[in-house]
């Protein structure tokens, strides 16, 4: 072999050896785990953990990346109906997430949400996320194509594991070009509850009614004892009238079939039908009796729904019953203790053949602007953790499967969960499912006009029905 060939061979061997050593040093697997160094003199081993690479930092879902600090310093705007006590509970529930991720969720609450959200969306100033208490209102906006389809944003397998299918079905709506997932559910409440001042109720010797007839007999007895039984208020700014729709919906579920209820919600069973008129007439036997309502019938329209229960906490009570969802406890005196000072009973069935129906409602969050940090916040809202503090403070039921029953700090809330589980029929708030122009429009106004005495019942029902036609 010539000297030149020996040099070339030596160089080639050196390069191969260097390359082999470089590969060994870098490690051929991207899944490197703990490695062992050679044993020290004492026979011990040292364990070292592989250093996370930039590529690893970018792996994971938007929520996982947010928790790694990837979106620190970003802002996500949110608009919804939570104000006063509810706004504080909501902000408390997201604070830990904001602290961990560095994402600032800038929430704006408004009593005029229903009247404002369309204006903002149409004007090109939609928030990143909006909280719709009426799915029907969201459905009307989803048809415009301005709502982000969450099937392209959220892991559908995770959603199916963490929600009952019915919640996902109710979040699926008509988009501009077909069905889309228009929103996800974050907060739910039960709306078949009659609240009462437990301690004084028991002291008065009253018994919780098990049937509708027993409830009406107790209402009459309380009137004879000198008090109106019911505390009712439907004033709620631009949303005035919604508590009246809850009464009608509850009674519909107790006086007709679930199929008729569904047809009514879809507009296939008109408000002028005998079924709907009968439900309002049953409600009127309480509402239109001045001896049964605190302040008389005329006070119902001018009393804010959150103020309505206040007379129950006077000593002695000036009223005894208030039919509202479990969120109403946010408006109870801070000193009042659940299971002691106040409690609830199930609004009794009217016709036994319709079993034990329960009316529920909730808040559905929709996404309007698609950015990584907004995706992270939306994913966070699909977890029980996002509502844990609110659940612990009371007044709300989490719709997610990963929300532990141990979070509920009262027997009252645990009983609510049990009530929903055992319900013969479970239906979502009808007005919330109707198109916004009906459910959050003519239905609210028509009931308000009827209760105020502005129109007769038949005229009010015709007025409401026109909402479907316009």
Blueprint of the fold:
Blueprint (H helix, E strand, L loop, with lengths): L2 H24 L8 E2 L10 E2 L5 H4 L4 H6 L7 E6 L3 H18 L2 E6 L3 H10 L6 E4 L2 H8 L13 H7 L2 H7 E4 L2 E4 L2 E7 L2 E4 L1 H6 L8 H13 L17 H14 L2 H9 L7 H14 L11 H4 L19 E2 L19 E4 L10 E11 L4 H9 L7 H6 L17 H12 L2 E4 L1 H4 L2 H17 L4 H13 L1
Parallel strand pairs: 3-4, 3-5, 12-13
Antiparallel strand pairs: 1-2, 5-12, 6-7, 8-12, 9-10, 9-11
Keywords: Signal, Transport
Organism: Paenibacillus dokdonensis
Protein name: ABC transporter substrate-binding protein
Keywords:
ABC transporter substrate-binding protein; three-stranded antiparallel β-sheet; 20 helices; single chain; transport; 470 residues; alpha/beta
Oligomer status: single chain
Fraction in beta strands: 5-15%
What is the count of helical runs? 20
Mean pLDDT reading: 87
**Poorly predicted ranges (pLDDT <50, ≥5 residues)?**
1-55
Question: How would you characterize this protein structure?
Answer:
By secondary structure, the chain is α/β, with parallel strands linked by helices. It has helices at 3-26, 54-57, 62-67, 84-101, 113-122, 135-142, 156-162, 165-171, 198-203, 212-224, 242-255, 258-266, 274-287, 299-302, 372-380, 388-393, 411-422, 430-433, 436-452, 457-469; strands at 35-36, 47-48, 75-80, 104-109, 129-132, 172-175, 178-181, 184-190, 193-196, 322-323, 343-346, 357-367, 425-428. Helix 6 packs antiparallel against helix 19 and helix 11 (242-255) packs across helix 13. Strands 3, 4, 5, 8, 12 and 13 form a six-stranded mixed β-sheet that branches. It has 20 helices and 13 strands.
């Amino acid at each position: 072999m010539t000297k030149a060939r020996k040099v070339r061979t030596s160089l080639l061997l050196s390069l191969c050896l260097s390359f082999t050593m470089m590969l060994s040093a870098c490690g051929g697997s991207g899944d490197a785990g703990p490695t062992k160094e050679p044993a020290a003199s004492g026979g011990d081993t040292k364990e070292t953990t592989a250093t996370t690479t930039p590529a690893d930092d970018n792996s994971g879902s938007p929520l996982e990346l947010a928790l790694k600090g990837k979106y620190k310093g970003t802002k996500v705007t949110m608009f919804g109906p939570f104000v006063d006590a509810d706004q504080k509970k909501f902000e408390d529930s997201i604070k830990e997430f904001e602290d961990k991720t560095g994402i600032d969720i800038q929430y704006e609450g408004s009593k005029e949400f229903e009247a404002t959200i369309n204006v903002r969306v149409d004007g090109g100033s939609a928030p990143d996320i909006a909280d719709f208490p009426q799915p029907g209102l969201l459905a009307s906006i989803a048809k415009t194509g301005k709502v982000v389809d969450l099937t392209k944003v959220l892991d559908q397998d995770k959603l199916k594991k963490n929600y009952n299918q019915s919640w996902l079905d109710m979040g699926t709506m008509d988009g501009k070009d077909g069905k889309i997932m228009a929103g996800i559910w974050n907060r739910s409440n039960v709306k078949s509850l009659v609240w009462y001042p437990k301690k004084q109720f028991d002291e008065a010797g009253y018994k919780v009614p098990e049937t509708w007839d027993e409830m009406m007999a107790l209402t009459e007895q309380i009137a004879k004892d000198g008090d109106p039984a019911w505390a009712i208020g439907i004033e709620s700014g631009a949303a005035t009238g919604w508590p009246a729709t809850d009464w009608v919906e509850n009674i519909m579920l107790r006086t007709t079939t679930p199929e008729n209820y569904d047809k009514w919600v879809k507009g296939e069973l008109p408000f002028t039908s005998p079924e709907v008129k009968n439900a309002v007439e049953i409600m009127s036997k309480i509402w239109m009796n001045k001896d049964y309502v605190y302040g008389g019938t005329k006070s119902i329209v001018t009393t804010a729904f959150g103020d309505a229960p206040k007379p129950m906490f006077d000593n002695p009570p000036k009223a005894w019953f208030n039919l509202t969802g479990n969120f109403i406890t946010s408006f109870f005196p801070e000193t009042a203790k659940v299971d002691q000072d106040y409690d609830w009973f199930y609004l009794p069935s009217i016709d036994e053949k319709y079993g034990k129906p329960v009316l529920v409602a909730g808040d559905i969050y929709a996404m309007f602007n698609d950015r990584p940090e907004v995706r992270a916040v939306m994913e966070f809202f699909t977890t029980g953790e996002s509502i844990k503090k609110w659940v612990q403070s009371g007044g709300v039921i989490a719709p997610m499967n990963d929300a532990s029953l141990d979070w509920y700090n009262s027997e009252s809330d645990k009983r609510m969960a049990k009530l929903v589980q055992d319900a013969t029929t479970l239906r979502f708030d009808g007005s919330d499912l109707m198109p916004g122009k009906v459910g959050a429009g003519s239905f609210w106004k028509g009931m308000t006009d009827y209760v105020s005495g502005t129109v007769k019942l038949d005229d009010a029902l015709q007025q409401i029905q026109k909402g479907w036609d316009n």
